[in-house]
Design goal:
Largest sheet: 6 strands, parallel
Strand order of the largest sheet: 3-4-2-1-5-6
Shape: globular
Number of helices: 10
CATH topology: Undecaprenyl pyrophosphate synthetase
Bound molecules: 3-methylbut-3-enyl trihydrogen diphosphate, magnesium ion
Distance between the termini: 45 Å
Structural class: alpha/beta
Helix content: 40-55%
CATH superfamily: Decaprenyl diphosphate synthase-like
Order of helices and strands: HEHHEHEHEHHEEHHH
CATH class: Alpha Beta
Radius of gyration: 20 Å
């Protein structure tokens, strides 16, 4: 099945972004601000969640077109169960509807669907729809879309610790063997690389219990847009900003330049000009 391609001006923006530096392999997004987006318009909070689905569609499609391999979306946290019952219930209905409505399009766009979190806590019909989507799309080779549902970073780590202790008790793992890599393999994200870029919308400067272990060296980007207003142009701005960062992983600049060669950081127009002149 063929990926829907970007066209016109959008295609130009994407090409420019691809040319100007490295495209992150994994982006994680805390999709925040739905309620405030709606309230500012005198609408009920659920209207914001509803419009947020259109942002999800746009971002998923743009990520696929840019060749991003993994996109993790924080859709519902462990703590979100504490919200008023009617909001939780409307959110679950909306999730069910979105999964149903978007399945064919996602499949057509070669998206592989995955989920992390306490999936068993979701209403049965949501679980069924989710597992069906995962099954239908399991052989797709495009973007891997990971939905974090009833997810929290502390839950993930706690769950991993329990499984590690169980395996040590059963004798299939020795305590001395527990390394960072081993811990990583017990987390719900074991199949995916750590996010390169973590975006939070709505201007809030916090992690809200999202991927705690996995974001050790992710680049953080806070957008002032509320999630329902966050669209591909905002994603391109975030990626452009990411491309201008220097990811040092505890080292110093010179070491990185030696290790990775000149294409790690995008060249400015002037640098590109000087380089082309020096070849003449
Ligand atoms: C994010 O928007 C969606 C979920 C957490 C499910 P919010 O519902 O948190 O909206 P704000 O942050 O209250 O505006
Ligand atoms: C984080 O947003 C969770 C999701 C986006 C799913 P919240 O709105 O729940 O976070 P806080 O309460 O503002 O920290
Ligand atoms: Mg919020």
């Amino acid at each position: 099945m063929a990926l829907e391609k970007a066209t016109g001006h959008d295609k130009k923006l994407q090409d420019r972004l691809i040319e100007s530096g490295e495209i992150p392999k994994h982006i994680a997004i805390i999709m925040d601000g739905n309620g405030r987006w709606a309230q500012r318009r005198g609408l009920p909070r659920i209207a914001g969640h509803h419009e947020g689905v259109n942002s999800v569609r746009d971002i998923v499609e743009a990520c696929g077109q840019l060749g991003i391999k993994f996109l993790t979306l924080y859709a519902f946290s462990t703590e979100n169960w504490k919200r008023p019952e009617d909001e939780v219930s409307l959110l679950m209905r909306l999730l069910l509807k979105a999964l149903r409505d978007e399945k064919d399009r996602l499949h057509q766009n070669e998206v592989q669907l995955k989920a992390i979190g306490e999936i068993h806590k979701l209403p049965q019909d949501v679980q069924d729809e989710l597992l069906d989507g995962i099954e239908v799309m399991k052989r797709n080779t495009g973007l891997t879309l990971i939905l974090a549902l009833s997810y929290s970073g502390r839950w993930d780590i706690t769950h991993a610790v329990r499984k590690i202790v169980e395996d040590v008790r059963l004798g299939s793992l020795r305590a001395e063997e527990i390394s960072e890599a081993v811990v990583g393999r017990y987390l719900s994200t074991r199949e995916f690389p750590d996010p390169d870029l973590m975006i939070r919308t709505s201007g809030e400067m916090r992690i809200s219990n999202f991927l705690l272990w996995q974001i050790a060296y992710s680049e953080l980007y806070i957008s002032d847009q509320f999630w329902p207003a966050f669209r591909r142009k905002d994603l391109y701005a975030a990626i452009g900003d990411y491309q201008r960062r220097e990811r040092r992983f505890g080292m110093v600049s010179d070491q990185l330049k030696k290790q990775e060669g000149p294409r790690v950081f995008p060249l400015s127009g002037m640098e590109r000009f000087l380089k082309s002149v020096s070849k003449l």
